[in-house]
Amino acid sequence: xxxxxxxxxxxxxxxxxxxxxxxxxxxxxxxxxxxxxxxxxxxxxxxxxxxxxxxxxxxxxxxxxxxxxxxxxxxxxxxxxxxxxxxxxxxxxxxxxxxxxxxxxxxxxxxxxxxxxxxxxxxxxxxxxxxxxxxxxxxxxxxxxxxxxxxxxxxxxxxxxxxxxxxxxxxxxxxxxxxxxxxxxxxxxxxxxxxxxxxxxxxxxxxxxxxxxxxxxxxxxxxxxxxxxxxxxxxxxxxxxxxxxxxxxxxxxxxxxxxxxxxxxxxxxxxxxxxxxxxxxxxxxxxxxxxxxxxxxxxxxxxxxxxxxxxxxxxxxxxxxxxxxxxxxxxxxxxxxxxxxxxxxxxxxxxxxxxxxxxxxxxxxxxxxxxxxxxxxxxxxxxxxxxxxxxxxxxxxxxxxxxxxxxxxxxxxxxxxxxxxxxxxxxxxxxxxxxxxxxxxxxxxxxxxxxxxxxxxxxxxxxxxxxxxxxxxxxxxxxxxxxxxxx
Length: 487
Known about the structure:
By secondary structure, the protein is mostly helical. The chain has helices at residues 2-23, 36-39, 45-51, 73-90, 94-101, 103-119, 121-127, 129-143, 146-157, 163-169, 173-191, 195-214, 227-237, 254-258, 261-290, 300-327, 332-338, 340-354, 361-374, 385-389, 394-405, 408-419, 426-450; strands at 30-32, 54-56. It has 2 domains: 1-26 and 69-244, Up-down Bundle (Growth Hormone, Chain: A); 254-458, MFS general substrate transporter like domains (Growth Hormone, Chain: A), CATH 1.20.1250. 66% of the residues lie in helices and 1% in strands. The longest helix has 30 residues, at 261-290. The protein starts with a helix and ends in a 37-residue tail after the last helix. 48% of the residues are buried. The chain crosses the membrane at residues 77-98, 131-154, 166-183, 195-216, 254-272, 307-325, 337-356, 362-384, 396-419, 431-450. One of its GO terms (molecular function) is symporter activity. Its main location: membrane.
């Protein structure tokens, strides 16, 4: 259910980028972009066929009578960006909301709102483009709650030896992106762009019903879980997470959180991760197109490779991490820091190499793919470290870190534009990749120096004053815990 939550969320997030091509058809069939590789190419026809940058704008065929719009480029930009402005606002508070009102309730309500508004998007577009912008903004507001709430859910359900696969499931959005991009075109051509909203909205509504029936906030609250499984999960998690059936709405200790050096180290690591990812997802394809003369987005298979690689590698790294925890080979802190080499340092080095590929688009695509793939190790670093520090407040910690990290999505395009304002040659693009790689690597170095995988003292919630002396200290390595379970 975690995997499909992310799948459905991304389905409603990315469908607009394809739908708007059909909603606002462009009469211009092609546009040419001057690339450095084109300038240095041979004069023979074979070389010209390879290096000339001719980007074809695909005109999607639609059934007769489908309504289209004549929106300007600026109006289309508002439609596309409305979602992300809303998302950036609520991702900061999504975790706290889930911890106060329950992740099951928060996810159900916000996803249902997104599903209804996605279904109503065609009518909103017909009223006025700003009505559609408003709908997308509210969908983004709703979606901002999802990932912090899911992390709060993971804290209650995932035994330490299985946490890797749980967190890997949160990258299901990559598959949702690939499937949506692949199937939206045929849907539009056969039924019209309206159905590219109706179908995701219907799927999301059905998913909400399944979520409400199948998912509960904790093993203690689930009515159909076996006693054996419930006991296994509770004993594995121990007293690090409050599993009480009572209404315990605890306000997170924000002062302790914001003054915690390990938490700040995790925020730095997460920001570096988002910064690097945004560079790979936005700047790298533009580099391949403008500098090398190769239109990556025109080939669906190639454009989806980086996303598929990240999902596949995350499953592999997650399984490795679970194995290490189960065998107790090394400490949690050592594992988090070691895998930063794969999640941050290696992708950063591959970004630097991208600026020196020369006129070799296939090599560039390979570097982009492996950079994204290697970042799948984030399931063992920045995507799970908040679960180590304070599983009781994992949603709040992730929400704050992700809210700050999302600002990279606004900054990285400005950095790219600054360095490439005078041209699109290799000399202009290398500083872009050096900048992206530097934050990738620097954030990892900072975390390696100051981060930790030890649960912090302010995580623990004592039900009674006499249990104060039962709490392990922040520096304790003792993981043996005896907990009372009321049935």
